[in-house]
Design a protein that fits this description.
The protein is α/β, with parallel strands linked by helices and 243 residues long. It has two domains: 168 residues, Rossmann fold (3-Layer(aba) Sandwich); 66 residues, no CATH class. The strands form two sheets. Strands 6-7-8-3-9-10 form a six-stranded mixed β-sheet, with helices on both faces. Helix 6 links the parallel strand 7 and strand 8. The chain is globular and about 50 Å long. The termini are far apart.
C-alpha cells in the first residue's frame, strides 16, 4: 500500500536561457513531513529550480507540483498551501515588521481576526517581538531573515520552500534559524536550498543534490555519506565544483 502523495514534486524540470541549460531534466519528490536539503555548489541551479517550484519562473519543460497542484496551471491555488522565502526576501526597508507583515497578511486576504492571530503566531515563532516596531532597514541580517520567514508563514502553509535561509548569518544567528526550522518541521514539509554541508547534518532527513543543473543524488544524509563523509561525497558527485 502506497503512502500519502508527496507535497513537493519536480518532474522533468528544465530551464533554458538560449543555448544555456540552467536546469536539465530534474526530477525529485519531497515526502510529506520531511525536511529535505536541496544541495549543490553555487550556480548549480538550486535557485532556478526553486523559482520554478514556487511559480516565480516558468519552466522551459517539465512540471512542478505543490500538494498535487500543477504550479504552472494554477499558481494561485498553489500559493495558498505554499510559503516561500527567497534568498533575498522582498522586504520594505522603511516599514517595521508589524507594518510589513500586516500588509502581507492583507495581501493574503486574511480577515481581521485571522490576521491578528497570524501576526501573533509568526512573531512568536520567529522571535521578532523585540524588533516589532523598529524599521526593517535598521535590523541585522538575522532579524531581516526572520521577518522574511515570518512573512512566508503568515497563511500557515503546509509547505515551506526556503532558499539559502542561513546565508550571510553569523554562527549564533545560524543556530537560531536552524532551531526554528526544526520546530517548524513538526507540522510542515520543508525544502531548503543550501551549499553548506553542516546544514544537512543539522536539520535534514533527506538530501537532493544537483550539479551543473542535473540531479546527481536523491536519498538520506546517511546514504549520501556512504561510508565516507558528506564533504568527500559532495566533491565526488559534483566533480570538485567550487561551493
Amino acid at each position: 500500500m502506497s503512502g500519502p502523495p508527496p507535497l513537493i514534486e519536480a518532474i522533468g524540470l528544465c530551464k533554458y536561457y538560449g543555448a544555456f541549460a540552467a536546469v536539465q531534466d530534474v526530477t525529485f519528490a519531497v515526502p510529506r513531513g520531511s525536511v529535505t536539503a536541496f544541495l549543490g555548489p553555487n550556480g548549480a541551479g538550486k535557485s532556478t529550480t526553486m523559482k520554478m517550484l514556487t511559480g516565480f519562473l516558468a519552466p522551459s519543460a517539465g512540471t512542478a507540483r505543490i500538494a498535487g497542484i500543477d504550479v504552472d496551471l494554477d499558481r494561485v491555488a498553489a500559493a495558498k498551501v505554499l510559503g516561500y522565502l527567497p534568498e533575498n526576501g522582498p522586504l520594505y526597508p522603511e516599514m517595521t515588521p508589524a507594518q510589513q507583515l500586516t500588509y502581507a497578511a492583507r495581501a493574503h486576504g486574511l480577515s481581521p481576526a485571522r490576521r491578528r492571530d497570524a501576526l501573533e503566531r509568526v512573531a512568536a515563532a520567529c522571535r521578532i517581538e523585540e524588533v516589532w516596531h523598529k524599521p526593517i532597514r535598521k535590523l541585522s541580517k538575522g532579524f531581516r531573515q526572520r521577518v522574511g520567514l515570518a512573512q512566508a508563514m503568515l497563511h500557515d502553509p503546509q509547505v515551506l520552500i526556503l532558499d539559502e535561509p542561513t546565508a550571510g548569518l553569523d554562527p549564533n544567528q545560524i543556530q537560531l534559524v536552524r532551531e526554528m526550522i526544526r520546530t517548524l518541521a513538526k507540522d510542515k514539509t520543508i525544502l531548503l536550498s543550501t551549499h553548506i554541508l553542516q546544514e544537512v547534518e543539522a536539520v535534514a532527513d533527506r538530501v537532493v543534490l544537483i550539479s551543473e543543473g542535473r540531479l546527481v543524488f536523491d536519498g538520506t544524509p546517511r546514504e549520501l555519506a556512504a561510508g565516507s563523509t558528506l564533504e568527500a561525497r559532495f566533491r565526488e558527485l559534483t566533480k570538485g565544483v567550487a561551493a
